[in-house]
Design a protein that fits this description.
Helix content: under 10%
Number of strands: 4
Distance between the termini: 41 Å
Strand content: 15-25%
Shape: flat
Number of helices: 1
Largest sheet: 4 strands, antiparallel
Radius of gyration: 17 Å
Order of helices and strands: EEEEH
Strand order of the largest sheet: 1-2-3-4
Length: 84
Amino acid sequence: MARRARTTVSPPPPLGSLTQVADRERGSCAVCASPRVTRLGMSLTDGTVVDFVSCHRCEHRAWSAPDGSPLSVEAVLARTRKPA
């Protein structure tokens, strides 16, 4: 009987909390410079990893690739569609 190779699975990063200041990523809004932003990492339907930032002060919302390059709403929506 052949043995299966073991794969190493890394544990997921701790989730933290949006309500605890110590767990929030530091940053500010690109439009109004407010530090009151929510930043979430997401994996879209097609596997693309993006960061979503929403400002609590001016309500600006933006998506970006992990390298920081901005993504348009249209590009994000296109990557969330399931293949036909």
